Amino acid sequence: MEDLLVIGGGPAGAACALWAHQLGMRTLLLESGRLLGGLQRRSPYPNLWVPGVHGRTGQELAAQLQAHLGIAGVPYVTDSHVRSIARCHSLEGWQVECSFQRYQGRRLVIATGTLPKDGGFSESPTVGIGPGLSMERIEIGGKRVAILGGGDNAFDQARFALRRGARTVDIYCRREPRAQSSLRRDFPPQHVHVGPFKADQRTMTVNHAPYDVFGVQFGFVPTIPGDLQLPLRNGFIDVDRQGRVPGLPGIYAAGEVTNYWHPCVTTSYAQGIQVAKSIHHDLAAADRRPPRHAPERARSLSFNG
Predict the structure, then answer these.
(1) Which of 36, 59, 91, 139 is the most buried (most CB within 10 A)?
(2) CA separation for the pair 256, 114 (Å, rounded)
(3) Is the dihedral of CA 35, 38, 43, 46 positive or negative?
């Protein structure tokens, strides 16, 4: 039985597992994908916002993350798809059942991150969903591109499309754009359409206007593993300041899967580390407690000894 099972090998899960391991906890990281790194594996763009890694792409950052865990000796298992999570009463912990193996841990961290919303669209040779590789794989030189969504990623992808030689790029958003003002200033306002729109993938039209490529940038949804009923806030896992999931003793969550104030790579690192420290403190306190059914005299001796 491990002290800690961490589900998800993105920035939050990797940071949590690294710190837990180095704090002396028996730690195992479970990742559903073939490689660690989370959404950074989908990003071919240089990281301008992550301190200390200027000029390195998200993919390079993900590779460094996996290499660091390997050098530090943090145990991890890839291609490990979680099927169910259940309380293990006999061991006062949690059991995680994956495709080919069961694991048990005294504490459990859910750090499974998010995936781009598809909005009812399907990826195809002409439709990209989310930022990064999904859009970069599409040849857009000389083509008419419609970007659907009004956040930072929508405006980023629109600018990238223009730089890659798109013939025209239009942004469609149902409400006023949420993107940073600096991103909005860099894009021609006459090509930003605010209000109701109907995009049809079958005919490749938006409000009957024809396009060659759609970029679906509707934000992200949390990926919550197993069949455990978790408390949610605004669709994301609710946690307290220590990363604990209310009502489920021994379960924590970290990173973009939580209702965290500003989810990104750097805050995911920080939250993963905070959760590891919190669990280290909680396990130390639990190990100092007397056995649950010990006589009163034995408990007293335990505290005094």
Answers:
(1) 36
(2) 6
(3) negative
| Residue 260: closest CA among 280, 275, 282, 240 | 240
Q: Is 64 exposed, middle or buried (0-12, 13-18, 19+ CB in 10 A)?
A: middle
Residue 57 in contact with residue 46, Cβ under 8 Å? Answer: yes
Given a cut of 70, whether residue 70 has pLDDT beyond it is: yes
**All domains of the chain in start order, with CATH:** 2-115+220-298 (3.50.50.60), 118-216 (3.50.50.60)
Between the alpha carbon of residue 267 and those of residues 50, 81, 134, 260, the distances in Å are 10, 25, 24, 9
163-215 pLDDT, tens digit each: 999 999 999 999 999 999 999 998 999 999 999 999 999 999 999 999 999 99
Coil vs helix vs strand at 87:
strand
Q: Judge whether 85 and 72 are in contact, CB under 8 Å.
A: no
Give the predicted TM-score (pTM) of the model: 0.90
